[in-house]
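Appendix B. One record, verbatim.
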Amino acid sequence: METQTLQTRIFALKESAKRLSISKEEERNALLKSIAEGLQKDFEQIRSANEADIAKARAEGQKEALVKRLVFSEEKLEASLLGISDVIGLADPIGTVLERRLLDTDFLLEKIAVPIGVIGMIFEARPDALLQIVSLCLKSGNGIVLKGGREAFQTNTALIASIQNSCRSSSLGSDWFTLLESHGDVDHILKMEGDIDLLIPRGSNQFVQYVMRNTAIPVLGHADGLCQLY
């Protein structure tokens, strides 16, 4: 994607995220329900795109473990729809009072949950992860920049198209999310401090460290884990 086009898209996303952050819970839940219905309606197109991704991955000699994660079957759809339903049932996180302290007479200190803003999420080639991320960001009032594994690009594109169609009848619009197309786009967003508020890279430790070293944006990333049995 051209740099100017990407910057324009991220700017529109940032403005849309501001509106999303002050939206009513009823609006967000209604859109989540519409997205779930749209995914059911568009499943055949999504499955066709997924089959193309799977065929390409096998032709490239990808490991079977990756191909298995790549599959978006009817069972995966049903699990995703159940997940969206669970998100709808969650309490509205926006405006939740997390802590309240009376410091003095008529001097009350409150800690209130507010949306982060625009989140950049880089994740593996697992299409159902895209739906989890989008639904959680919508519920919490955050804009989202998505970059999935290249092996799932056609499936992710079909999922995003379905979600965009569902957004057409919503006052919240569809500018609050976008799907990146290439690793070059990732390098561009790493330089967008001030427009993107948090990056969450999922992948190898080497990749997470690369993101951390090449951006001024706060990064929520993992390091090598250590599991011990006592």
